[in-house]
Batch of 3 targets.
Target 1
Amino acid sequence: MKVAVLYDSLQTIGGGERVALTLAKHLPADLVTTAPNRDLPERAGFPGVDIVDLGGLIRQPPLKQIDASWKFARARLDGYDVYVMIGNWAHYAARRHHPNVYYCLTPTRSFHDQRAAMLARLGVPNRWVARAWTAGHSRFERRSIAHCDEVVSISETIRDRVRRYFGRESTVVYPPVRTSLHHFEGVGDFWLSVSRMYPEKRIELQLEVFRRLPDEKLVIAGGYSAGDWGERYLSRLRPPPNVTFLGEVPEARLLDLFSRCRGFITTAVDEDFGITPVEAMAAGKCVLATDEGGYRETVLDGKTGFLLPPEADAFAKRVRGLDDATLRGMRDACAARARRFDESVFLDRMRALLAQRTKGARPSEERYG
């Protein structure tokens, strides 16, 4: 098969980018995107990926998102056997490109489950603009999804959202983790968080946890796309002296951080899936996560980590109660759990699904155990 993978925009390293790059590298496929940072694939550990550039984007939201949607809607990508669309804007190409598969990371959260929270963060004039934009664009989103031949969700959590907001059934294929790259170096002297710098990731909760733990250290790695809400959000955070922000780091550095940390902290609101907790488990590390969303599908409470309420005191109490021996003792269970989400599992399922789609068949409703 000659495959095109369409992804919203390739500007920073995150879970969606890793999914798109994994498919582009291993199918292999052309990666069709907007405003690509051409150094990013190599930095993320995916050298040699062929990129098709649909052009730059207006930096300012929501014009950035509207611009991306328009570029995918106008795209003419001929000569491919099947199209895989990933993200919140790439699916606008579905109407003109068949057969296609939409790999849904999540229905756009600012249109649906996070709309009220997003509007509450804005001043009155911007709030009116955002309210009108999200109401109108959410209708366009639902109309676009109707042109998708097959919808695949990244988790049961997203499967429920797809059913609720799009009225579509979908198959679950969990995102890929390259577990073979990870190793356990030891139980170090710092906790690790790897996240995009956005409000729904609750970075401020992590800062509050470590204000209560002056003798512990937290290292936070991750960036944001230029010109979006992340820059504003990060500028308002006031970290205590025992918290270090690294920004976006190369793949080799990130693997080293996973291997040497004490454990992993992640606090997103109703997380879609969460690749980074699985990466932490692949490195044999305990995960402390909020008891919500995709974390419930990956973290085995009490065995590979702990699912906690989104409260600073609950996280601080758990951190205090974990000594080196306990953290080291979870290593084997964590690594075994992570292997259930290995990229080989993902690629096998996606290859089978795409082969069925090109033949006009529907994929099986196989569920993960």
Target 2
Amino acid sequence: MPPLVIPAIIFVVALAVLLKASDWFVESAEKIGLSLGISPFIIGVTIVAFGTSLPELASSIAGVVGGTPDIVIGNVVGSNIANIALVLGLVAIVANRVPVDFKNMDIPLLMGSAIMMWFFLYDADLQIWEAVLFILCLVMFLVNTFGNNDEDDGERPSATWKDYVLLVVGGALVALGAKYTIDAIIEICQQTGLSSGFIGQTVVALGTSLPEIFVSLAAVKKGQSSIAVGNVIGSNIFNTYAVLGISRLFGGIVVDENSLAMSIPLMMGITFLLAFMTLTSRITRWEGGLLLVFYVFFVVQSIILYKV
């Protein structure tokens, strides 16, 4: 059996566990939130967004602890690009037209987080005080969001003890799946010579963005586009503030030249493109197609820059 087969199998299985565990976490957290009377949009931009960002957080922390800190930036930036260009692109194509409000959908906060990331990473280093500031911004975002919550007066589902158990078990399996995902990536990098930064911003970023894809498409099919868009916006804000900030507390983070030259500027460009699209209060199908083109461009440029 070729030596690459075993780590490849471990990677696929571990990533599958990571995604399924995240799904359990999201479903239980969403049900618990609804049972407490939290509005669907707030759930999308906070609870669901945090749950779908768990794979990024877990794999990034595991990367720092496991000796591949360059995977963090690739994971965060690649996931943020995938969330907007791939997830919202698919959502707009499936739904044909997605209503979005520039003021009410936290777009300005999303733009602010992207600018803050670029400013802090421009010197190719993330200081501890900058990581702490990221975490403080996350807390302020949560306080502001829940402070604007219009309590849902509709019928509330009842959360049972099983939902709380799934919440805990899902979180534990997320951590376990992340560990073996990173271990497999390290082995694959050693055997193929591929940069862990490249794998982080393409394979891992796409894999950890699968929850956003599934959750958003499912929300659109149920006619809940606010949860779909709120999920993407909230997930990107969580990725920037929580994943970068918390991961940095576990060790140094490496920012490679390709991320500074291409990935981070492209992420900012796509973020501002989304903000421009929301000025018309909707994302149309052709705009969704344009976002998908940007994602293909990002993947191709990554392959060229990392000389894969």
Target 3
Amino acid sequence: MIEKIRTRTFSILFLLGIITTALYLSFTLLQGNERAIPLYIIIYTSSFILFIPAYFLIKSFDGNGKKVVLLVIVLGLIFRAMLIPSSPSTSDDVYRYVWEGKMLYHGFNPFEVAPNDASLKALHTEEYPALVSYPDMTTIYPTIAQLVFMGGYLFSGENDIGIKIIYLLAELATMLFIIGILKHRNLKPELVLLYAWLPLPILEYFVNSHIDAVGVMFFIMFIYLIINDKYIAAAIPFALGIMTKLYPIIFLPLLIKKLGLIKTTIFVAIVTVICLGLLYPLIPNQHPVADSLTTYLRNWSFNGSFYSVIFGITGNGYDAKSLVFALMIVTIGNIALRYKDFLKAVYGVWICFVMFSATLYPWYLGWIAAINPMIGLYSVMSLFFTINITNFTAMAEIWTEYWWAYIIQYVPFYAILVYEFKDQILAYFKKRKRTNIRSL
């Protein structure tokens, strides 16, 4: 009887996987040379609807699931491979990736030279750098990201196929390390499906080609090593993650409690040496290395929940950003002081990032998605689904954020989040009440 249930589970998963594969292949075939944003939204929604029963099937699965894990991994890679020939749809960031890879290959420093600089005229083609957005800005992407861009250019020239092949290898590594973390926590390795089949990283990394795929790989490697008490080894992927995208920096406060002051100092020293060593060859002579990054942080905002509320009240973007940044720092500091489980603390910091970030594009959620198989909050999974609604912004002739998009995303997210943490919230207020009574 048990064997029949296992066989049925495998068969249903296989069927769901085949249908999902057909969906992703249909996007590649139907997209043509267009951005096809409505098609993107439909494929995202449809694949997520298939993802939900697959998740609950895995959640209820009981038994030796080696075949199931292999099926999940193989189909997860096939999903991604089906999208490798596709073109960018809801984001044009990859055009900068390709151009900066070409620049670096030909000896130009992307931190020094903007895409439209006259010195690059000999490299111009019909499509590049015309497709690059904000061509007067130098890069905001650190050294490892630049090496990935150049590697992609070496492999496939002025398209993103080479970059996506690098991503495919990175995603395989991410899945394998997720399985390692699941086993370390005595959780079912089949839960890797929560990342391997999640439409968000699949579509954002293999249609829109966001570099986060590589950063997530290094970050999940760091998590695996640090929970196995290999803190010196963990410093290497942590540094490489920072040099891909800067997000890992926000987790440094958690390490003091996890490692202690001396080990944290050693960890930070290793990370600093690696980062400076990688960044040094690209430090520009003419302007600060973080010039464009500062411009981005100062001027960009999109889909931030707390930020949008505060901005709506104050009407001042600078004040709103300052306040949400302060709230993020205070909350992360509180987590760093009080946490009992390092992995849950990491997850909590990512939730803080979701809540207090002034800019929350869909692909930013790929980072918390890699931790989600170990925690699996429904509030976070609801946001993975509803953030697809922000792609309507990319359909407008003029960049437009819609109030109803905020409601569709954040009302379910915060409602479910409060419900999931209701016991902790009630315990906190009861403790405060007892403290106030004793002080009378």
